[in-house]
Amino acid sequence: MDQSPQVQTYSRETLLSLNDGTHHHFLPKEVFHTLCALDISRVKPTRRGKKGGLKHRQKLTRSTVYKANATNDLSLFSLNCQSVKSKATRGIITDLLVEYDIDIFALTETWLAGNESDDFILSSLTPPGYEIYNIPRGGGDPHGGIAILFKQGITVVSKSCDQNHQYTNFEFCDVVFTCGSKCFTLVTVYRPYPSAKNQFTAGKFFEEFSQFLQDYAISQGELVLVVDLNLHLDIEDDYNTQKFADLMDSLSLTQFVVGPTHRCGHTLDVVISRESDNLVKNTCVLDLISDHALIACTLQIAKPKIPMKTITSRKYRSIDPAVLKEDIVSSVLTSSPATNVNDAVNQYNDILSNLLDLHAPARTKSVVPRIQQPWFSDSLHQLKRERRKAERKWISSRLTVDLEIFKALRNKYNVALYHAKCTFFNNKILECGNNYKTMFSIIGEVLHNKKTTKLPDHDCSSDLADQFANYFMSKIETVRSNMQSNVTGVSSSQHNCNLSFSNFDTVSVADVSEIITKSPCPSSLLDPLPSWLVRCSAACNYLHC
Fold first, then answer.
1. Distance between CA atoms of residues 218 and 375, nearest Å
2. Which of 406, 381, 383 is nearest to 395 (CA)?
3. Range(s) of the domain holding residue 524
4. Which of 57, 120, 381, 426 is the most exposed place for a label (fewest CB within 10 A)?
5. Same domain, 165 and 90
6. Confidence category of residue 197, pLDDT binned at 50, 70, 90
7. Same domain assignment for residues 322 and 216
8. pTM reported for the whole predicted model
């Protein structure tokens, strides 16, 4: 009889379903030690962590919780996004901008090449109220590229990048911002990870980076650097870590990020500023958006004043057509109408404008323009909560199974966010029906087509008006001269016509009313009453006959 033990197998889905986040399953001590001996409950090795070893890895923690709008200080965020394409089109970057009310967002590893195919991505990346400064990846590095997103209330004084490839081991861009009365320089640096292909070394990097920092350390104005070093700064006894610390001390610079910024437990991303500037505070590590975490800090600079938008509206739907008809009938439009055409037009406009102000007075209010996400629902909010709960559990346990659960929930939320956005615009297009004007307007919104008005060069509005007047006057003169030249030499006998119109039928009020009712009703801002309101009220008999 076969006494060999039977092996019970479980699928990945079955194992993941056991850890639903609501119950804690405790294993017997001997079973747990057996799993550890079989390397089942340990963290998978990583190529970036081999040098430091497992004993040097830090436990990923969140020492500070960032709260949007907690203070009036300027917020600065950074992220190694590892291809911004999917995160822009799926709305992930916009979701972060809305959630944390980010003022300046530095992105590295955008993987944008700088060609025409990037236009749609950049438009998706830049929501209303924001501007972008994009530096495509340079050289032969397929994983570079830097982009800076900032609010429109922040003014750019100057911007530059390494167009001449003066530094070969890293890429950078610097932007001088002015916010209120404060002026500061933001420098974003990305260092590619050394490989056999690029032949980058830490020695060459420090040789270039030290000279780079010296130039900025003695520059005028306040300074902040956001750097993706790809160095394991968490290993204190590492030679590169000590060399970096010595470089900071020699230039009186301070590095503010504490704790790991990569999913493998290493500190790769830093925020640097001068010790004397006293500019950076409240630095913290937030969500894992890619393999890198989102870095947040605040600058002791007041937030830009949000430009207010003035909106004027009327409650047209609250107008009672029957009451409006009575007011029109009792007005001078019917009792003593003007006999002159010009006087009749003026009377029509004045009376209807006054009646409109009486029934639906104009209301003016100032609103703050904000990023709109009408597709964000309660279900998406719940998925985001589950994702963060799974992330906190993985950060606490560091178990591989918890990491897989967090990844699954993160991907589930990103896919749900993308599908909600697609469904929203798909339903809007279906609701258009045969209204192609509205349909193309929605399609333009999806494709982020920005309306640009191209006008001739002009010094002032009166100069522009004169240019338009001269253009149309010359055009009319050209048409007249061409008509006269064509008529010359043509005998009048060729234009004789024996047909004539002699009998005309009298048009009744009902005929005119029927024509008005069946005709389209486009409206203009110059109309005293909207056309649809004139039609829906029964007063058109008195207004047009």
1. 48
2. 406
3. 310-370+510-545
4. 381
5. yes
6. confident
7. no
8. 0.65
